[in-house]
Amino acid sequence: MRTFKLFAAALLIGVASMANAQSTDKESAKACADMTKAKVEMLTKELNLDKDQTVKVNELLTKNEESLMGMRGHCETMDAKAKKQDDATYASIAEVLNPDQQKKMKDLQSSGKLDSCGKDGGKGCCAGKKGSAKAGTK
Fold it and tell me: Does any domain span residue 37?
């Protein structure tokens, strides 16, 4: 009987943990989607993107965030990979820009404005929790 109670307690804790993880995943996905949307809006305005460029930039940024989703909650260990992946995404975005837009894009990257875009108070969307990432990092 004691074994049954321990098993039931462990099962209950496991179910509660899974429910919390699913909720966190949804929050993380929403936070990252909001951040992507903010970046697309900022780039569209700052670089004066046309409709085709805006669609392509949105696709590239969405793909980038989706590929990082499995790493959310491990902010310190994902920083280097996220930075490398962001740089590759920004290089892909530069390919759809004209020379003037490319220069503005480089300026946005070097100023840090692009990296902080869509982040509440400079904090990222790791695990869908505002404030769980170091300021200015992903």
Answer: no
